[in-house]
Amino acid sequence: AIVPTLLGHSIFNWALKWVKAALVSVVILGEPVGATILAYIFLNEAPTYQQILGGLVILVGLTIFIININSKSGDSK
Questions:
Q1: Which of 7, 8, 32, 76 is least crowded, fewest Cβ atoms below 10 Å from its Cβ?
Q2: pTM higher than 0.85, yes or no?
Q3: Residue 44 gets which letter from DSSP?
C-alpha cells in the first residue's frame, strides 16, 4: 500500500507542474475507473452493470470538465 500511494501522490504532484490544480483534483475521480479496469485485467474480476454505468458517468463528467477548462483557457489568451 505504501508504494502505490507514494507513487500516486508523486505523479499528481509532478502533474501540477504542467496543468492546473483544478484539473488534477478532478482527474483523481477517475481512479476507481482505472482500478476497476486493472481488477478486470489482472484479477479476472468482472465489474457489475452498476459499476460500468458509474464508470461511464465519471468518464463523461471528466470529459465535459476537461473540454470546458480547455475552452476557458483558450479564451483568456
A1: 76
A2: no
A3: -
For residue range 18-57, list pLDDT tens digits in order.
Answer: 888 888 888 889 989 999 999 999 999 999 999 999 999 9
Three cell numbers, residue 44: 479476472
User: What does the CA dihedral 66, 28, 41, 60 come to, rounded to 10 degrees?
Assistant: -30
Largest Cα separation within the chain, whole Å, is 47
Question: For residue 9, what is its C-alpha cell?
Answer: 501522490
Residues 6+ apart with CB under 8 A from 16: 24
Query: Do 68 and 60 contact (CB within 8 A), yes or no?
Result: no
d(CA 9, CA 53): 27
The C-alpha atoms of residue 20 and residue 69 are separated, in whole angstroms, by 9
In the numeric block, the cell 507514494 is attached to 6
